[in-house]
Design a protein that fits this description.
Binds ribosomal protein uS19. There is one protein chain. The longest helix is centred in the first third of the chain and has 4 residues. The strands form two sheets. The chain has a six-stranded antiparallel beta barrel with strand order 1-2-5-4-3-6. Strand 11 and strand 12 form a beta hairpin. It folds into two domains: 89 residues, RimM (Elongation Factor Tu (Ef-tu), domain 3, Beta Barrel); 63 residues, PRC-barrel domain (SH3 type barrels, Roll), CATH 2.30.30. The protein starts with a strand and ends in a 7-residue tail after the last strand. By secondary structure, it is mainly beta. The chain is built from three helices and twelve strands.
Length: 172
């Protein structure tokens, strides 16, 4: 079963079993909805703990979650610094508009220029601000950083396992 990260528990909040979560998903409303199942991966633990969201509210830049069967701070303190994940069963394709993709769909694809030159494989996606940056691992060269803008990313072909790109001046 594949798991995908949706947030990190950074601390507890109050004494009634709430935790502060930094979301790393574009869909926090559905991922953290009451009744949702999340999997907490703790450091040095191979097996995740299954948690069901009992309540959710937003507070500053965090989501405050409580979980069924965990009514006090003592029940949730062990989850500090845990990574919250969902399974591929919880990913809904209707979350995405045409032309949008999950990170795991992009990472591993070949980056190919419009002229057919293979640049390398996309190894990670950075989110520094206005737009994502796709990092391409190039054999024998330093990594290539491709901004996720229409002028650079021309087409994503999941069936062929490649992304067609047009290198703008200064990118290479």
């Amino acid at each position: 079963m594949a798991y995908y990260t949706v947030g990190t528990i950074v601390n507890t909040h109050g004494i009634k079993g709430e935790v502060r979560v930094v979301a790393t998903t574009d869909f926090p409303e559905s991922r953290f909805a009451v009744g949702s199942t999340l999997y907490a991966f703790q450091k040095d633990q191979a097996t995740p703990v299954t948690l069901t969201v009992a309540s959710v509210r937003q507070h500053k830049n965090f989501y405050l979650l409580s979980f069924e069967g965990k009514p006090s701070i003592n029940d949730v303190e062990i989850f500090k610094q845990s990574t919250l994940k969902v399974t591929d069963n919880e990913l809904e394709s209707n979350d995405l508009r045409p032309g949008e993709y999950y990170y795991h769909q992009i990472v591993g694809l070949d980056a190919v220029t419009v002229d057919g030159e293979n640049l390398g494989k996309i190894k990670e996606i950075l989110s520094p601000g206005a737009n994502d940056v796709w990092v391409v691992a190039r054999p024998g060269k330093s990594d290539l950083l491709l901004p996720k803008i229409d002028q650079v990313i021309k087409r994503v072909d999941l069936d062929q396992g490649k992304v067609i790109v047009e290198l703008m001046e200064g990118l290479d």
